[in-house]
Design goal:
Layout (H helix, E strand, L loop, with lengths): L13 H16 L5 H6 L5 E8 L3 E2 L3 H11 L4 E4 L6 E2 L4 E8 H31 L6 E3 L9 H10 L13 E3 L1 H7 L2 H11 L6 E5 L2 H10 L4 E5 L3 H11 L4 E5 L7 H5 L5 E3 L2 H4 L6 E5 L2
Parallel strand pairs: 6-11, 7-8, 8-9, 9-10, 10-11
Antiparallel strand pairs: 1-5, 1-12, 2-4, 3-5
Helix pairs in contact: 1-3, 1-4, 3-4, 4-5, 7-8, 8-9
Length: 290
């Protein structure tokens, strides 16, 4: 895998790429392989193609596309003209592919599935980031990802200028409303969490009222408070209450239309599941040179 295809300062493990692409190819090729290309294309035939953007956006997933062609046939050459994280214009070529025609055609759909999906996430994230650039707020993703693709989708968020929330249940404590209910309240939940985790583990707790936030602040045990579905006026009050004692994250119903107003409250982070679960694919296509 060519690391030059990846966005600067946005790590994505080559193992994660290979694993995801290999599973996708296995799903597509099934038991008999690409019977259409085998039946219609001579084995010796060569092909040249360009990966072209149909719409403007932010590119992500180029390394996945390249990996799809490599895994089908190492003789396929993939020459990138762009890099993940780059802004691309409509009708702009982003890569050139050349090699055995059967291999190019067999890898085409898997390559496009990855690059269109991940570029869609990067493009939507960039739109959110642009709306809040006049504030201190950072746009972050969530765990609302397609099973098996979390590392890739969170990478795409970084390509779009966003930041990552926790990757899984094992890398940070996030005490939500159901945890609070079962634990018997905000304070007991925080006390047990702080007594259980190591000194390097951050603790975040969800609150849906200023009264709950007041309890959190008085315990002094949380690193972050997640303000769940609060209106901007209430968020402003929360910012005043916190006064830098802990970081504040806004979440719930965040849209491109509302994100700027949320950011202007002085909040530190704004999380949105839509970045990964609702981003429309960015239209890119493989144009064959005849």
């Amino acid at each position: 895998m060519n690391s030059d295809l990846l966005a600067p300062n946005a790590f994505l493990s080559p193992l994660a790429i290979e694993d995801a692409v290999r599973r996708a190819l296995d799903e597509d090729l099934g038991r008999a392989g690409d019977i259409t290309s085998a039946a219609t294309i001579p084995e010796s035939a060569k092909a040249r193609a360009q990966l072209v953007a149909r719409k403007s956006g932010v590119l992500a997933g180029l390394a996945c596309a390249a990996e799809a062609f490599r895994l089908i046939d190492a003789a396929v050459e993939f020459r990138a003209r762009k890099r993940d994280g780059d802004k691309i214009a409509a009708r702009e070529p982003v890569a050139e592919i050349a090699g055995p025609a059967r291999a190019v055609l067999s890898a085409e759909r898997v390559a496009l599935n990855f690059v269109t999906h991940l570029s869609g996430i990067a493009t939507l994230t960039a739109a959110f980031v642009d709306r809040v650039k006049h504030t201190r707020a950072k746009i972050v993703c969530t765990r609302k990802t397609i099973p098996g693709l979390r590392a890739l989708e969170k990478y795409a968020v970084r390509c779009g200028g966003g930041m990552n929330h926790r990757f899984g249940l094992d890398d940070a404590v996030l005490i939500k409303d159901n945890h609070i209910a079962v634990a018997g309240g905000v304070a007991p939940a925080l006390e047990r969490a702080r007594a259980s985790v190591g000194h390097l583990v951050k603790i975040e707790i969800e609150v849906d009222s200023l009264a709950q936030l007041d309890v959190v602040l008085k315990t002094g045990l949380a690193d972050v408070a997640l303000l769940d579905n609060m209106d901007p006026a209430t968020m402003k009050q929360a910012v005043e209450m916190a006064k830098g004692k802990l970081a504040l994250e806004a979440s719930g119903g965040v849209t491109l239309e509302t994100v700027a107003q949320i950011a202007e409250t002085g909040i530190d982070m704004i999380s949105s599941g839509a970045l990964t679960h609702s981003a429309p694919a960015l239209d890119l296509a493989l144009d064959m040179e005849i």
